[in-house]
Amino acid sequence: MLPHLDAAYNLARWLLRNEPDARDSVQEAYLRAFKAYDRFRGGDGRAWLLTIVRNVCYTHLRRTQHNRPPEEFDEMQHTPVNDTLEEATRLRREVNTARLDAALAALPVDMREVIVLHELEGLAYKEIAAVAGIPIGTVMSRLARARVRLQRELWSTIASEDNP
Prior knowledge:
Elements lengths: L4 H12 L2 H18 L8 H20 L20 H10 L2 H10 L2 H12 L4 H8 L3 H27 L2
Helix pairs in contact: 1-2, 1-3, 1-6, 2-3, 3-7, 5-8, 6-8, 7-8
């Protein structure tokens, strides 16, 4: 499981948005994986480990943020974005790592999770479904909504920097 340490830490860091908590959660996940290794039935060890990391992180989030109100559904955030070639080119040209990190951090945890697992860790939809314990259709729709929301976050960052 050690080859998957970077992926485990990356997922925990993005879910918890706190490096010390991410390190603690990865350590806890590895301890749980070690204790449960006799129940591992083979297959994809990376997905198995990331499932444990995810569960540890969500337990931590529930403990620390149980009083946080649920996010309101905003129709404007979930409507399709006009993807013109010119807009996409401008976005790629103007976005830097700091902007992308800030926009990704602004996403709700469930959207951030699928973006990190798919775009940063390279997991397939089926693997994400297994890690998150959700249907593959939910993975696809959540990923699509997360991409739209991420693009909007990036555009708002760019717009606020253009008009101080």
